[in-house]
Design a protein that fits this description.
6 strands, 190 residues, binds zinc ion, four-stranded antiparallel β-sheet
């Protein structure tokens, strides 16, 4: 048996099939409504041309600095609630992001997002990368400049991440395999 198994592992690995879940994610269908305290929201995602994207990314360098100074000046309580100490807060007041933190575009530049404070949030990495890898990337991976489609993005009005709001993935209650629904069916004798 062992030798047989060894032979199998030496065969050229097949490209893994896309799971139903991955296909759903590509179509913006998720079995959760909230991720890390961000609620899924449908927006029109329009990919700007390459030059516009490049210009906005370089403009972002100065906007990020202004955004961080604003957080340092007026959102210190939220920064401390995120676990940041004096040294990190001093950095933020000077316009620098502390190590392990990222200023995220809620609607990314790739989707037509602007460098405005209401579109930005300071948050730790992780969980930042999950917003891209789990929610947005699968939906927009194939999109080219000028293309436009409806996309689900993780949204919050906050400008600073709130750890106490982060419940990981909050699953849809409407799902028939939801635990509460199953329990009700049992009680109803269905
Ligand atoms: Zn991001």
């Amino acid at each position: 048996m062992k030798a047989d198994r060894f032979v199998h592992t030496k065969r050229k690995p097949q490209k893994p099939q896309k799971t139903a879940e991955q296909l759903d994610a590509r179509n913006g269908k998720f079995n959760f409504s909230e991720i890390h305290g961000f609620k899924l929201k449908e927006v029109e995602w329009t990919v700007p041309d390459k030059q516009t994207r490049k210009r906005r990314r370089s403009q972002f360098n100065s906007v990020r600095e202004e955004f961080l100074k604003e957080l340092g000046a007026n959102h210190e309580d939220e920064l401390r609630a995120m676990g940041l100490k004096d040294k990190a807060i001093d950095m933020i007041k000077k316009g620098h992001a502390p190590q392990g933190y990222n200023v995220h575009h809620k609607l990314p530049i790739h989707g037509g997002g602007q460098n405005v404070f209401s579109n930005l949030i300071l948050m730790p990495i992780p969980p930042h990368d999950d917003l891209h890898h789990i929610v947005m990337d699968p939906q927009v991976a194939q999109m080219q400049s000028g293309q436009s489609k409806k996309v689900m993005i993780p949204w919050t009005d906050d400008m600073v991440y709130h750890p106490e709001k982060d419940k990981g993935l909050v699953m849809n209650n409407a799902k028939p395999n939801n635990r509460a629904v199953m329990a009700k069916r049992m009680r109803d004798g269905r």
